[in-house]
Amino acid sequence: MQWIVRMTERTGLAFAATLLALAILQVAAVGASARGYEDMTRLEQRIAEFASRGGGHRQPRLDRRLRLSGCDVLPELLWYGTGESTVLVRCGGPESWQIYVPVVVAHDAPAAAAQRNGTVVVTRPVPRGAALTAADLKVEPATAVPGGVSDIGDVTGKIAVRALNPGEPVRAKLIATAPAVKRGDPVIIKTGSPGFEISAEGVAEQDGAPGSRIKVKNAASGGRVQAIVGGPGIVFLPGYKNARTGRE
User: Fold this and answer.
1) CA-CA distances (angstroms) from residue 239 to 79, 96, 140, 242, 246?
2) N or C: which end of the chain has fewer CB within 10 A?
């Protein structure tokens, strides 16, 4: 027996539309599968490096159960809110997403090192904002202080966040990286990607340590932008990728 299927014009169009929708869904599924998920181990490492730039060691509390679409560009990291306790991670690619990751100071490793090597303490008054030198510091042997620093080399050149008194232990939260750029400094503003770079002259409107964000005025246009401090006299627009490392 031969079966004959007859369709009205309306039914045929509906059937064709259904097939087309199924095909689109299949292509989308294949594309998502090929793109994969974001490497959570690598992302956690990047967040830890970003959060620890100001001194000390901070551990992100990243939920590894998350399934984030693989980001086609390097995710942008910035502090969210006050107190530097939460990092905003934002992917600006076609599969855009953003998450908020809390970070905590990891005391265990510094405390263990301090117990073995001692804790750095201040030998004389240090005013707020002053750069610490080796002459300002000494190591108290066999002492352990939560969040304390055990190596003078990790403190020398850092800036005191507040006034420090003689004999006071130096904790990671009490020091900050010295500004690489100061307000009023001429800077080169860079943007681009590996193999392609644009630069312009500007003037810093804020102090900034490497990795921090500051306001910069474009010397030619007078426009103001947020830029990331790369080093003395150098700032990058967000999203800039270093030609050598491929990182911001």
Assistant:
1) 16, 14, 44, 10, 11
2) N
Nearest partner of 238 among 220, 219, 211, judged by Cα: 211
Q: How far, in Å, CA of 51 to CA of 207, rounded?
A: 19
Which tens digits make up the pLDDT trace of 17-64?
444 444 444 433 334 434 588 888 889 888 988 888 766 677 888 888
Helix runs in the chain, H state only: 9-35, 40-51, 108-117
Cα gap 133→135, rounded to integer Å: 5
Q: Which domains does the chain have, with CATH numbers?
A: 40-105 (no CATH), 120-176 (3.90.1210.10), 186-236 (2.30.30.760)
Contacts of 228 (CB under 8 A, 6+ apart): 211, 212, 213, 235, 236, 237, 238, 240, 248
Q: pTM score > 0.90 for this model?
A: no
